[in-house]
Amino acid sequence: MALIEIQHLTKVFGTGADRVTALEDVSLRVEDGDIFGIIGMSGAGKSTLLRCLSMLEKPTSGQIVLDGSDLAAMNGAQLRAERRKMGVVFQGYNLLMQKTVAENAAFPLKLEKGFDKAAVAARVDELLELVGLADKAGAYPAQLSGGQKQRVAIARALATKPEILLCDEPTSALDPLTTKAMLALLADINRKLGVTILIITHELSVVRRICGRVAVICDGRVAETGTVSQVFENPRSEVTRLLLSEKEA
Amino acid sequence: MGAFFAEYGSILWAGTLETLYMTLVSAFFAYVLGLPMGVVLTITKPGSIAPAPRFNAVFGWVVNILRSLPFIILMFFIIPFTRALVGTSIGATAALVPLTLSAAPFIARMVEQSLEEIDHGVLEAAQCMGATKWQIVTRVLLVESVPSLLRGLSISLITILGYTAITGSVGAGGLGNIAFRYGYQRYQTTVMYATVVLLILLVCIIQILFDRLARRADKRNR
């Protein structure tokens, strides 16, 4: 079953002469439980796509159907409720710098009216255990390494038990070794919790390592999509060949 | 020295307390007005969490116009308002009204500047978690900016302290009033020097205290 279905998504910025079409008629299906990669060069529209999926940008037209309901048509309280089914992990971590690791992970849980303090504390322990930061609960983000910060961000994104985790270049600020560990953690989460993961990246190795399916984005359009082995072994689009050759270079 | 303090000590002490009273109370009310103004200035900017570009531009102008009124003119200008509000236009309590009104737009800009320092990505992260605008303001913006807000508070306090000396020259009490009456009107320069020393001390104490508070509050540098 498709968890997220993107249908004819178009995003246009500006008007008149400044008009820029960032995404044009993008349609994708992400199956429940999959790890789905979206790869493309800088400026291809990957980030805009993720910003539309997380509803930070309102699509100009098209639908984003999560679990049978169209996010693009939602507003206010309805959208806020739906957002709790999604966790977002950012390239720049976006942690609260004045809050401890535990407080960061608890943040989304404390947004709910009349939350149960003990339940939140228990959930935070569970989350930090999951990402391997149980011993850092009282530390502040400034005291952590990049990889550890991203782990906190993942714990925070998983706090509300989302159905899907959207990751925007989650490893591009990390060194190769930390990247490897981070991808292993994501794969582990996918397996253990059954959370669907969508990863935006420009790194082929990321897709190769953990993704089941992949979509290649170029100039705001989907160049091709399929299983990772299909797409990478039999590239049908110019941009995929370009991405593959860059890796060799 | 001993004789000087025996004669003027109690006056100077009372003046110091009066200056502190005017500074702290008007700073409190100025923040009651200025903090929400600063928040509104920040969040209604294009691209922020409650964008309203036209309103933001108009409101920005209003704040600028209020800020461009020199304090001494504002003080006289609003005398009828002051009288209506506190029943008198003379004394320390009456001085609170112009002090508050003049500091509020200044504080609005200080607060705006502090809130601007916060990375927009953190606000977006909160949005993605389903936070309401109110929650983003109260749990992200105002929490993440605490160290910077504290530094702004020390600048605001010192600015208001300077204004209290002006109100003192027109009968509002405090150290400014003592300096004016004894130093300027009676040529007792020693008393004036004493008030200057006391004002310098007050400024130093405020600065050191808030620097320390801000540093202790900031979790980014440990």
From TrEMBL, chain B:
Domain ABC transmembrane type-1: 16-210
Keywords: Cell membrane, Membrane, Transmembrane, Transmembrane helix, Transport
Keyword Iron-sulfur included in the entry's annotation: no
TM regions (residue ranges): 20-43, 55-79, 85-108, 149-171, 191-210
PROSITE patterns in the record: ABC_TM1
Record Pfam families: BPD_transp_1
Membrane association type: Multi-pass membrane protein
InterPro entries found in the cross-reference section: AA_ABC_Transporter_Permease (IPR051322), MetI-like (IPR000515), MetI-like_sf (IPR035906)
Major localisation: membrane
Keyword Membrane: yes
Record's subcellular location: Cell membrane
Family, per entry: Belongs to the binding-protein-dependent transport system permease family.
NCBIfam families given in the database record: PRK10782.1
Protein name as it appears in the record: Methionine ABC transporter permease
Organism: Ruthenibacterium intestinale
Lineage: Bacteria, Bacillati, Bacillota, Clostridia, Eubacteriales
